[in-house]
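Moderator note: this is an archived Q&A kept for reference. The question asked for a predicted structure of one protein chain; the sequence and the answer are reproduced below.
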Amino acid sequence: MDRNIQLRWIEQAEAKSVREHALLQRAASEPQVNIAFTRAGPAWFDWRRRLDRTLDRIVSVVRSFPIDPTSLRKARPRAALRLVSAAEDHDRVLAAVLITDIVDSTKQVTEMGDRDWRVILDRHDDATRHQIRRFGGSEVGNRGDGFVSVFDSPARAVRCAAAIADKIAPLGILLRSGIHFGEVHLRNQEISGIAVHIAARIAAAACPGEAFVSKTVRDLSIGSGLVFEDRGIHQLRGLPEEMRLYATRSVEPLPKPASSN
């Protein structure tokens, strides 16, 4: 019963659409003259016969297609999902994700005590934030013993990691850093996505005092003056495929701005 109702509704809608379209075309093609005419002439009947034949063909084609009763109900949710997906895509950007982590932070706070550790941690935080701003990055997370930041350039993220390590070395602490370049989802000044998880896993695999980067970062940094050492294939926890990681061997200083003299 439902199928018959759907077919009848479709037939009526198609017939109405064809009639309206044909009338509009006919009105547009006729000259705009103020002459009264009758619809009883031969031309009118010829046009009606052609229209009837067209309608018959449309109805037969519609009837030949099987109709799923749930298709009409699904049409609106699918359209809504497409709109939601398009809106979410506007919040996704390509970025270099830098994650830093203090090596053995729990052990050090136990040995130093809360007060002394708080002083070291404050100096670490100040130095890290300064370098992130200096290299054009944005802080998007502070995990207590490390930072999450994003950059529009992989090379800048690598240089920032090296600069942070140099600045905090006199404090007697070491960092592990991980850098990956990929698509991230921005929401309320926070980031998420697989690229963030990969950067965190790379940081966990890094040796104390070093910054490890993915092959993507290494490839995109070609020509930047950065030098990398191959650290082999790693199976990062939670990732289905192995990844080749690299460590920064040396970092050349950024070029100084030209003198105005």
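Archived answer notes: DSSP finds eight helices and eight strands in the chain.
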